[in-house]
Amino acid sequence: MAITASDVNKLRQQTGAGMMDCKNALVEANGDFEVAVDVLRKKGQKIAAKRGDNEAKEGLVLAQTSADGTIGVILTLNCETDFVAKNEGYVNFVQSIVDIALDKLPATGEELKALSYNERLTVEEKITEQVGVIGEKLDLSSYAVINAAKVVAYNHPGNQLATLVGLNSGSDVIAEAGRQVAMQIAAMNPIAIDKDGVDARTIEREIEVGKELAIQEGKPVEMAEKIAMGRLNKFFQENTLLSQAFVRDNKVTIEQFLNSTENGLTVTDFKRFSLS
Asked: Most buried by CB count within 10 Å: which residue of 109, 123, 181, 229?
């Protein structure tokens, strides 16, 4: 059957594929739109397989909260080039996945991929389809969700870094404090909320390194462990969120800053995703 320019444009609007790709798909499908979409999807799958060994180090990181501010999601969709990452269509595509995540609240990235993107495709299948449209490897590499009395999102300019922070109070006065802490997390990259959240392996490694450094500095072996524990405490101060010096006022810790905002205010959870 004859393929019209209107048919090609309709398929292009539906899939985002190039004009010639849409025309060829319609020809192959004898004008059947559903079959043509599958043709384009298969093309995407072939490209995905072909580019499977390519590195996808660029992309976008986006964090967003629900209207009532009690739930937040954050995810990273990687691509191969900065050129694609800055494209408006790519930004909109990532935002559409964020919207689905915020609506359905899957617990994991795998659950997110299995959700319906539209009436035909899952999120994972849509990503594969977009590989064919864009011509680059795409990878939903990280995803997380936070539930708390108050969740605050921070997206760093350029969308290569984003954070979510959950707080134990939902009062109106804490929104700005939450934003400041979310920015602190972006800047200082803490490894845990407090020392109780640091895994045992990290603690053991810091103690061993501290002891070795003390011995190299000529300190007596019997004092090395005590010196190492002192260094461990400094490690906690510098690398756990509540103990870190507040970037905007280094005379106070984040814990003190939160308490000055509202007595007992603290962080219940946080996430930080970055491309670098």
From this structure: 181
